[in-house]
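Lay summary. Proteins are chains of building blocks that fold into shapes, and those shapes determine what they do. In this project we predict the shape from the chain. Here is one chain we studied, written as its sequence of building blocks.
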Amino acid sequence: MTHDCGARAFWAAGLRPYHRVIHCLNYQLWMGGVTDHFNLETTGATVFPFGVGNSRQLVRVIREAGINAISSTPSYPRYLEGIVREELGIDPRDLGLELGLFGGEPGLENPAYRQRIENTWGMKAQNANYGVSDVLCNFAAVCRENYQLHFLGTGALLFQLIDPETGEDLPIEEGTVGEMVLTHLDKEAQPLVRYRTSDVLEILGVGPCSCGRTGLRFRVVGRADDMVHVKGINVFPNGIARVLESMVPEVTGEFQIVLDHPPPYAHLNITVESGAQKGAEDQENLKERIAMKLKEELNFKAIITLVPPGSIKRTEMGKAIRVVRTYSC
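And here is the predicted shape, written in a compact code that computers can read:
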């Protein structure tokens, strides 16, 4: 059942038996790496296990093995781009990747972020791997007709939404926003009942999609445990990311919310990577414009600190921690 649900997701996103896909998620003591490998294979595609690290060798394998699809986090292509362009002197488009199957972190719901990947690499960037490690590593993906996540865990999971603060059950209908709760329907080892995932979703549709799939469709608003209340406004890192992506290349899109004291919060301190070296006057102007844009679109006050490109630490998969708490709990 696990591999069937995962294969449904990858197939919906466009993976087919003729693809040669290199899998760049962590195989070491994390269910997503090995499990997603078998999910990919279940579609009939040829899968090359690679894992994380040694990006230069990855480029070599892609070129020599005729790889035309990649499975990774959505931030990894940006990290890989720097190595491909600056260290190897290769245009990313020349590697011949046609399909990107991404998951494990937010970002692709933002059209600007997605377009940047597609323009850089010449591949279709698909949100193809949404899941919860404690429950099922992949049970939702977008299709080739629209960019809404399809719930594809039918038969394996009972899907419910609750109010994250009161725990009250919410109706599964278009427009509902709530925390996803999952129950295993067919699992012998450690089945979970009404497991709170902390993922806050919005239901986008419950009728048939133009692709023919009939399950509900949704988008991820953010995580309840990453949500920060600022003077009555619920602020999610996803929303900040969307705003900053619209300002690339003036900024890189990378940022961190720095919380130096417990709530309540009247404003947020946000560290943002600038896109290039700027003079002091230009930096002040950029900080003001970022703060203004966040206020206009998300309705909260931000105090911006600019840092040079590459200053915010990423993992080997290109991920950055979005919320940093510097105070003692």
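What the prediction tells us: The radius of gyration is 20 Å.
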